[in-house]
Amino acid sequence: MIKAEQLKFDSNGLIPAVVVDHYTKEVLTVAYMNKESLSVSMEKGLTCFYSRSRKELWLKGETSGNYQHIVAITADCDLDALTVEVVKDGPACHTGEESCFHNPVWVSEEYKQFSYDALYDLIRGRKTNPQEGSYTTYLFDKGIDKILKKVGEESTEVIVAGKGGSKEETVFEIADLAYHVMVLMVEMGITPEEITRELEKRHVVDKKVKQETMK
Question: Residue 98 needs a FRET pair 20 to 30 A away by CA distance; which of 31, 84, 121, 137 works?
Answer without folding.
Answer: 137
